[in-house]
Write a structure and sequence with these properties.
By secondary structure, the chain is of the alpha/beta class. It has a single domain, classed as Ribonuclease H-like superfamily/Ribonuclease H (Nucleotidyltransferase, domain 5). The chain contains five helices and five strands; from the N terminus they run H-E-E-E-H-E-E-H-H-H. It has helices at 11-21, 92-105, 148-160, 168-183, 186-193, and strands at 31-42, 68-76, 81-87, 111-116, 133-137. Strands 3-2-1-4-5 form a five-stranded mixed β-sheet, with helices on both faces. Helix 3 packs across helix 4 (168-183). It is globular and about 60 Å long. Mean pLDDT is 85; it is low at 1-6.
């Protein structure tokens, strides 16, 4: 569904990066690779392509208000599974809540390496990292390395674009419906978030 980046690093890079990042307690356990990211969804929404008669100029709704919610999303391509929360703020407290949600979705007895970007609160001092997770920060200025970015493009194209939300509750409902649309299609989860360089053997 989504094309992978042409600048993907070699397998050996990620194999070494994951190995060096894992704690001693993870040794000998199955390792899952997860991707994680956040997206803001709100009344100043996204416009996208629509089908229309050649030569016409189709209309699309556009809101002028400013209310937002944030989808904290993560996916494990190998298992086609995911974990998400819709929250009012994007900060270290919200990130802690999402880490706890991801921790519950990791297979029993496994350890998850979570690929994250360089958002400031991803390294905040008040993070509470569950024992079955390890955070692996991606290089700066390289959003193409995080396939979670492709989830947002997919949801905006198929669920969230060209919409007007009357209330904050409407925004939250639309976010939940959009994520469930994605999460319940396990083949889509795998297709959208898989990258060859993420298939590491540890």
């Amino acid at each position: 569904m989504m094309q992978s980046s042409k600048r993907s690093p070699p397998l050996c890079f990620w194999r070494q990066r994951v190995r060096q990042s894992l704690p001693a307690a993870a040794q000998g356990k199955p390792i899952e690779i997860w991707v994680q990211d956040e997206a803001r969804v709100g009344q100043q929404g996204t416009l996208t392509w629509v089908w229309s008669k050649k030569g016409s100029r189709p209309r699309a709704p556009r809101d002028r208000r400013y209310d937002w919610a944030y989808i904290f999303g993560a996916a494990c391509p190998a298992r086609g599974t995911s974990a998400a929360l819709v929250l009012p703020h994007s900060d270290s407290h919200a990130f802690n809540l999402h880490l706890a949600e991801i921790s519950k979705a990791v297979a029993p007895g496994a350890h998850a390496a979570i690929l994250i970007d360089g958002a400031g609160y991803h390294g905040a001092g008040d993070l509470r990292l569950p024992d079955n997770l390890t955070l692996i920060r991606l290089p700066p200025y390289s959003p193409e390395l995080n396939s979670a970015e492709n989830i947002w493009a997919y949801l905006r194209q198929n669920q969230l674009a060209n919409s007007v939300f009357e209330t904050y509750a409407d925004i939250v409902g639309a976010c939940c419906n959009a994520w469930n649309f994605f999460a319940q299609d396990h083949a889509a989860v795998t297709s959208i978030t898989t990258r060859e360089w993420m298939k590491v053997t540890l």
